[in-house]
Amino acid sequence: MIFFACNQESYNIKAFREAINMRIAVVAANGRVANKVIEEAVNRGFEVTAFGRKENNTKAQTYVQKDLFDLTVEDLKGFDAVVDAFGAWTEDTLPQHSTSLNHLCDILSGTDTRLLVVGGAGSLYVNPEHTTCVSDGTDFPDAFKPLAAAMAKALGELRERKDVKWTYISPAGDFQADGSRDGAYILGGEELVLNDRGESIISYADYAIAMVDEIESGNHIQQRISVVRK
């Protein structure tokens, strides 16, 4: 399992200058996680193109109002990375976690463009044998089990895609929309990680830092990683 601490302040000038030339796309860009990722990337000098169904509510330099399922090879051609921030919550739309991710994979198949997926915490393992997940726990809310199952299914299908340079990033169990931007996090792997205070918690803002760090580094191709507040 990957396990180390990252601090945003440690990034040097060289890394920043390299990031300036990076071109990324953020898909399903109207959501709150996507907005944090876009803001973080723009602040680091990335050239960001956002794709969303609704009117522009992002800080991206370029915005294209277009549904994820209508995106084509031409739309995503030439980007260094594509961030998939798609989310579905109702019973009839949950299967779209799989269909949307498969659509993006088909578009990026065989290219050098990396696909980074905003994932879920329910599929993180809680034992070394990787036989039990967070969502299997008795204290996991029943209301969220269908969502966790749909996202786990999509992740399982993503693991079969050897033709795409994907990275799946799971947040901590307590994923806080309005949490502070502390600038430091612990990077984990397939298993649920707790910090020194026994917490599994991360803010959207710090998750965005981890996401953009991974875009810059490209260290975990065809891997699932996870993040928790340091």
Automatic annotation (TrEMBL):
Protein source organism: Pseudoramibacter alactolyticus ATCC 23263
PANTHER family: FLAVIN REDUCTASE (NADPH)
Residue ranges occupied by any NAD(P)-binding domain in the UniProt entry: 29-212
Taxonomic lineage from the root: Bacteria, Bacillati, Bacillota, Clostridia, Eubacteriales
Pfam families: NAD_binding_10 (PF13460)
Cleavable signal peptide: none
One GO MF term: oxidoreductase activity, acting on the CH-NH group of donors, NAD or NADP as acceptor
Domain of life: Bacteria
Protein name: NAD(P)-binding domain-containing protein
